[in-house]
Hints:
This is Calcineurin-like phosphoesterase domain-containing protein. It comes from Salix brachista. Helices cover 26% and strands 14% of the residues. The chain contains 10 helices and 11 strands. The chain has helices at 33-42, 60-64, 79-87, 108-121, 149-163, 202-206, 246-256, 292-296, 324-331, 343-351, and strands at residues 2-7, 67-71, 97-101, 124-128, 170-172, 175-180, 265-268, 275-279, 282-286, 308-312, 315-316. It has a 6-stranded mixed beta sheet. It has a 5-stranded mixed beta sheet with strand order 4-3-2-10-11, covered by helices on one side. The longest helix has 15 residues, at 149-163.
Amino acid sequence: MVMVMRPISSCLTLSQTPxxxxxxxxxxxxxxxxxxxxxxxxxxxxxxxxxxxxxxxxxxRDALGFRVFVLSDLHTDYPENMNWVRSLSTKAYKxxxxxxxxxxxxxxxxxxxxxxxxxxRFQHVxxxxxxxxxxxxxxxxxxxxxxxxxxxxxxxxxxxxGLGVQTRPMVLFGLGIAPLFSWYHESFDxxxxxxxxxxxxxxxxxHFLLCSIxxxxxxxxxxxxxxxxxxxxxFYPNLPKIVGxxxxxxxxxxxxxxxxxxxxxxxxxxxxxxxxSVLDGIRYIQAPLAYPRERERRMNGGETWLPFCVYSxxxxxxxxxxxxxxxxxxxxxxxxxxxxxxxxxxxxxxxA
Length: 352
């Protein structure tokens, strides 16, 4: 769910009909440990070399007109969200690049249709998977069936390759883009828990069973806990346990340096909070479409500002504003030791 962008010194319309399902529905007996081990070897993901810029399109004139937009959390299984994607101009972004930071759709059909629509609108689309993309729900007979989330991940990556959607590092007009496949880990949360209320379990809220990854080591999501509101501010105070990992920050700093730099930018998704802030020399941005009910509450200021243009004319865009939570923490220090619930959260749990 994350992208790393950095300027470096060196500088198609396709069918919207999904390809055939990856495999017919299989018996539950396939989920044996022996078969999983055999399939795991086949589903190993390799990271290819960085794709160089195309010399035929590297003129300075083209570079000055090149723009980068960011989006996350499209959730196009909701018809309203799919309609929003369809409403995007088919002309305005023809020379531009879209960074798509995960959670496109839960079903393969909606994923493929969404990516087709986006690739028809943007010259380049770069994608990293989110947890909803890898969910393995029960599906009707004849629909794609996946032994586990790793199998589904490979099918989604195959679809991306067929559509011309990039999932590997690339350089375009001197801008380096590094997609980082990511997952969360509970150890990421080190702030004090809220003990005064009964909070639903993580399994009940995040549906871990829908992401079947067995016991492989976790990749990662959000790099720093400062990119999520404090627990007392959240309707689900345990959210920080399922949104990030310290290892991701290490990877980002290995790219940009421990102190970052003025041209370092990290794009992420997953929590649905609009965010734009600089922490220790790196700019962190989240630009989610989110769920229809969240847009109805104007949680992130609606949808007319999306997709957000983060890079244009050879430089990064000004800070996204308004941006409620990152604006709030720009003016207020975090106080994780305070566990008294915010009024809107307290009212919610009182009603519950």
